[in-house]
């Protein structure tokens, strides 16, 4: 690991200001950044720790009934306290292991946007709003616009995820096929049924990262049952990840299986 300085701001504005320095990077739980730095695949002159920013931690409900989660809130806290949204709490409670859940944060996961991460599926299926704060102020980004490909998001330079606002659906469930070595999902599906339709988000399958399965959404909006997906197949199965853990065809198959399981669980 290369040498670096560490600063620990106490407020969001202090954090944003610190990130304007040369070669400064934010760090929250450090579950991705620190291993990458240890392998000397990344470096930073200054790490700006977000763990001391109390206004970025915690869970509440706003006047629209949305679950609002501070960007620096660890997975374990979401699992224990987001009981108004059981499917999201269940997702958080199955990320990694206890050590990962105690350090990793929802904001860090969404900012990193790993193609096999769990939170992007929950945010996209929920139609969440990601609140980002940077040198230009604070703005809200719809999840449909936020995720832009593998490790790519709509965040601008110097912006951090300060809060995530998630509408609570009428019914929802998250089902993942676990890759036991990494504890990331090989493929996972988050299904959320709202009054105006169903949203389905898939993670772990595509090299482009999390995506909505629109054909499944249409079928489930008309008939919310696992049987509604029987005759469906991913239209772009050839673009699925293919590696030593499974071929693209296998991941395409798992996408339907995990979505059907999520529908059954939500029902």
TrEMBL record:
Q: Does the keyword Transport apply?
A: no
What protein name does the entry list?
Carbon monoxide dehydrogenase
FAD-binding PCMH-type domain sequence ranges: 1-171
Pfam families recorded for this chain? FAD_binding_5
Q: Which PROSITE patterns match?
A: FAD_PCMH (PS51387)
Q: Which organism is it from?
A: Jannaschia pagri
Q: Which SUPFAM superfamilies match?
A: CO dehydrogenase flavoprotein C-terminal domain-like, FAD-binding/transporter-associated domain-like
Write the record's keywords in alphabetical order, separated by commas.
Answer: FAD, Flavoprotein, Oxidoreductase
């Amino acid at each position: 690991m290369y040498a670096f300085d560490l600063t620990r701001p106490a407020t969001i504005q202090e954090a944003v200001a610190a990130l304007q320095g040369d070669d400064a990077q934010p760090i929250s739980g450090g579950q991705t950044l620190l291993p990458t730095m240890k392998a000397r695949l990344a470096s930073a002159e200054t790490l700006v720790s977000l763990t001391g920013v109390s206004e970025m931690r915690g869970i509440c409900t706003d006047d629209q009934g949305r679950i609002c989660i501070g960007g620096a809130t660890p997975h374990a806290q979401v699992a224990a306290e987001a009981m108004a949204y059981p499917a999201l709490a269940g997702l958080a409670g199955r990320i990694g292991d206890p050590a990962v859940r105690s350090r990793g944060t929802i904001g860090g996961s969404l900012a990193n946007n790993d193609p096999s991460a769990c939170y992007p599926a929950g945010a996209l299926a929920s139609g969440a709003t990601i609140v980002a704060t940077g040198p230009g102020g604070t703005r809200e980004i719809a999840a449909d616009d936020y995720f832009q490909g593998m490790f790519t998001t709509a965040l601008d330079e110097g912006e951090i995820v300060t809060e995530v606002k998630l509408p609570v659906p009428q019914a929802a469930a998250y089902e993942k096929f676990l890759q036991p070595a990494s504890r990331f999902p090989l493929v996972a599906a988050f299904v959320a049924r709202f009054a105006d339709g169903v949203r389905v988000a898939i993670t772990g399958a595509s090299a482009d990262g999390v995506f909505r399965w629109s054909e499944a959404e249409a079928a489930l909006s008309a008939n919310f049952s696992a049987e509604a997906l029987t005759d469906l197949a991913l239209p772009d199965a050839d673009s699925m990840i293919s590696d030593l853990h499974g071929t693209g065809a296998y991941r395409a198959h798992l996408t339907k299986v995990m979505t059907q399981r999520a529908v059954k669980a939500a029902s």
